Structure formats: C-alpha cells, structure tokens
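// run 5 | inverse folding | seed 20
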C-alpha cells in the first residue's frame, strides 16, 4: 500500500448526466441490473408506506431514507452473502435485501419484541440509533474476521454527521491500524438533523478524513446506484486481498425530513429540495434501464405492485401478532433483580391488572 492514501477528488458516475454518456458496469448482466431495480423499488416502497403507517398511528417515529436507496442497494449488491452489513437507523430496511421480512422490520419500529433478529442468520447487525456507534462494532468484527483467516468483509453505513463523532474516529483508526477488511460508507446527505454540513465539519470533503487513518477514499454520486456498487465492489476486492479498509463518500441530499417528528421547513431551501428530487436515484436508474432496453413501463409497474403487496401483507402480519409482554423489560436486566426493580414490576402488574 502506498505511503499516502489516494482520495478521489471528483464524483464517480456510471449513469450519464448533463450530456455525459451512460456506462455499463463490468460483471452486471441484464438480470443483475433488474435485480438491483427490484431492490431499489422495495426499499422505496417500504419507506413511502412507513411514512403513511406512522401518520395512521400504526408505527412509531420513523427515520425517513428517501433518496438513500441507491446507496443502500449499491452496497448490498456489491457484497457476497458471507459479508456483513452494519446499518444505522436510516438504513433500517436494508435487511430486506438480505432476506429479513417486512414484518420483522416494521415490528422494530413498533417497539415489538419480534422486531429483532439474530444477526448471524443474515449477517446484518442490529440497527444502531446512537450516532456512529456501529462503526467501531463493524471495525471490531472485521478485524475478527481477519484474525480467523476468513476472507469475508464488513460494510458499515453512516451519515455525514457521524464523521464528527468520536465513534467514527475510533472505528476508523482501529480499522486502519489493524488493516481490517472494512468498507466505510458515508451517506453524505448534507444534513446532521438540522445542522448543515458546513457547520459541523471544516473538512472540504468528508473523504479527506480517510487520509489520517491510512486508507484510500472514493467519492461517488449517491444518486447513482451503479456508481456506489462499483466503488464498493472495488473496496471489497481490496479488503479481501488483505489491503485493509476503504472510505466511500456517497454524496447525496436529504430531500425528506430527518424523521417523522421533524419539520424541515424551518431550515431547508425548498428550491434546493425540488431540484434534488429531480435527481431521484430510483427514477434515474429506471431511465437508465429504459435507455438500455432492459426495462419497460409494464415491467416497472409490475415491480412496484409486487413491492406494495409485500408491504401491505407485512403490516397486516405485524398487526395480527399479539402485543409484547411488558415483563420482558425486566426479565433479562439482572441475574438477581434489585428490590427497586421488583417493586416496579409489581406496580406494572397492578396497572395492567
């Protein structure tokens, strides 16, 4: 590895914009391109329906990820099944692309005990809500994979705000020192809740932060699912070869509220949002497939209908499950519960009859 890591300055693209030609990504045949499309639409449908379900009181506060589907899909499709994914709350539905059910993820947002899974079943770690805490988790697991002689890789997803947190620096430093097989994927959507990027970091490019940890960085257009796929695939190959971690900065824009409890009208520029919506990752990819002659309107409509049916069945199944037992909050906290906790449990039983 070179003494000075390389940071790509421009934004990589595969799908042509502003008159640039489209490219084909080596190794992706038409079937693979259509599989990526199905993943994009499934994630988009999950997000759209979850916002509706929240407004109906059917799930709790929800972190919207509209516009990030290209990043999430590109990452998962660039990995093998043996590789690991570490999501934040804004990637809550990424497990759908690894076989988790819609019901399981909806139940996570509903606070139901069945909304959890065994990470080893699908190689998707539990969702981390505190900002950046999944990064040292991913670095540790990736290092462990290397120590065991496995050629599996871990990918961790986080937002731009996480790069200003201690957990990011600790995880990136650990990965760099141990040459862990880790791909750090930053969804730079320009906002840390209501704080714009320029007010939470002095770095001109977030990818520049990789230099201090001895790893190269790639910058991609986060609206371009194939650019993300290509960058992560290269990073995975580098990690499997024993060359250590890579930082991928996927530049996008958060055109939706931070979450269903957020009022972005207090801080966003509506004209900027309208412009970014025209660069939507799902529509851009569908236009690309149309130009290739791989997808037509009937095929796209069929995929959308299938995803919508999957979502409706998932919420119905979730709502048919009996409520969680509140005593579970107490059952696994202590081997020998203190008296105060037992009094709280008795009070809970009294209140619930």
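// decoded
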């Amino acid at each position: 590895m070179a003494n000075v890591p390389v940071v790509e300055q421009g934004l990589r693209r595969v799908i042509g914009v502003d008159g640039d030609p489209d490219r084909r990504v080596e190794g992706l045949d038409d079937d693979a391109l259509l599989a990526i499309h199905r993943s994009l639409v499934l994630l988009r449908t999950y997000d759209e329906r979850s916002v509706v379900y929240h407004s109906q009181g059917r799930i709790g506060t929800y972190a919207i990820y509209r516009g990030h589907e290209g990043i999430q899909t590109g990452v998962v499709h660039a990995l093998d099944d043996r590789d690991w994914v570490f999501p934040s709350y804004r990637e809550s539905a990424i497990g759908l692309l690894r076989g988790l059910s819609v019901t399981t993820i909806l139940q996570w947002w509903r606070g139901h005990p069945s909304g959890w899974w065994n990470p080893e079943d699908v190689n998707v770690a539990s969702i981390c809500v505190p900002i950046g805490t999944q990064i040292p988790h991913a670095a540790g697991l990736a290092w462990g994979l290397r120590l065991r002689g496995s050629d599996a890789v871990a990918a961790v997803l986080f937002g731009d705000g996480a790069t200003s947190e201690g957990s990011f620096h600790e995880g990136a430093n650990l990965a760099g020192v141990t040459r862990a097989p880790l791909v750090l994927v930053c969804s730079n959507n320009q906002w840390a809740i209501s704080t714009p990027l320029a007010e939470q970091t002095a770095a001109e490019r977030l990818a520049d932060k990789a230099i201090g940890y001895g790893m190269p960085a790639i910058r991609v257009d986060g609206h371009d699912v194939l650019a993300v796929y290509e960058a992560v695939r290269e990073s995975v190959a580098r990690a499997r070869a024993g060359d250590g971690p890579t930082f991928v900065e996927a530049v996008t824009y958060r055109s939706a509220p931070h979450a269903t409890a957020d009022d972005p009208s207090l801080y966003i520029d509506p004209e900027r949002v309208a412009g970014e919506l025209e660069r939507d990752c799902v529509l851009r990819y569908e236009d690309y497939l149309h130009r290739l002659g791989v997808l037509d309107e009937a095929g796209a409509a069929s995929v959308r209908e299938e995803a919508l049916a999957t979502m409706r069945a998932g919420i119905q199944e979730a709502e048919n499950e009996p409520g969680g037992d509140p005593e579970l909050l107490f059952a696994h906290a202590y081997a020998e519960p203190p008296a105060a906790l037992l009094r709280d449990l008795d009070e809970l039983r009294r209140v619930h009859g």
